[in-house]
């Protein structure tokens, strides 16, 4: 009985460790612009450089934080982003965008000419769609999770099989 309890305990322990790892791997919140926040930047490439200095993964969040007269609007294409097309829908402050899938998302400020002055950012999860980067793609979190759950089921089945043997 003591041996069986020990094995069940081991199974639970492994389950908790794997669950913690899954949560820990998908919980980064990035503040757009870091200490500058979301404002008219000192130069038009500021947010492009900020974004390219980060590696975003599915499950991460980006936080737009600002004071004063700004907003966040999400446009649906690179063309709209480049032309600062106002989608007519803006979001209050602060704004947190959840990155739920691979691809690029385009955010701009629609106040006055802030977008033209560089207050816009592209957040890309997975392989960049608009650069020629040859960096190897990050492993997919979903396949990592599937693998982890596969391990859990294998371990638990072994424990159960042992228990009933
Ligand atoms: Cu603005």
Automatic annotation (TrEMBL):
The chain crosses the membrane at residues 146-164. SUPFAM superfamilies: Cupredoxins. Residues 28-127 form the Phytocyanin domain. Keywords: Membrane, Signal, Transmembrane, Transmembrane helix. InterPro entries: Cupredoxin, Phytocyanin-like, Phytocyanin_dom. GO terms for cellular component: plasma membrane. Residues 1-27 form the signal peptide. The keyword Transmembrane helix applies. GO terms for molecular function: electron transfer activity. PANTHER family: BLUE COPPER PROTEIN, UMECYANIN-LIKE. This is Cucumber peeling cupredoxin. It comes from Ziziphus jujuba (Chinese jujube).
């Amino acid at each position: 009985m003591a041996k069986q309890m020990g094995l069940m305990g081991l199974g639970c322990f492994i389950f908790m460790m794997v669950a913690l790892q899954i949560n820990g791997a998908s919980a980064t919140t990035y503040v757009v612009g870091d200490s500058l926040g979301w404002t008219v930047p000192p130069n038009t490439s500021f947010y492009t450089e900020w974004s390219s200095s980060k590696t975003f993964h599915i499950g991460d969040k980006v936080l737009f934080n600002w004071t004063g007269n700004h907003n966040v609007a999400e446009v649906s294409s690179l063309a709209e982003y480049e032309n600062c097309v106002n989608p007519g829908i803006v979001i209050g402050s602060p704004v947190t965008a959840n990155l739920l899938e691979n691809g690029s998302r385009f955010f701009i400020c629609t106040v006055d000419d802030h977008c033209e002055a560089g207050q816009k950012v592209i957040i890309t999860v997975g392989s960049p769609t608009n650069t020629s980067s040859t960096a190897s793609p990050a492993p997919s979190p979903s396949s990592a999770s599937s693998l982890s759950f596969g391990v859990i089921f294998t371990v638990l089945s072994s424990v159960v099989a042992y228990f009933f043997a």
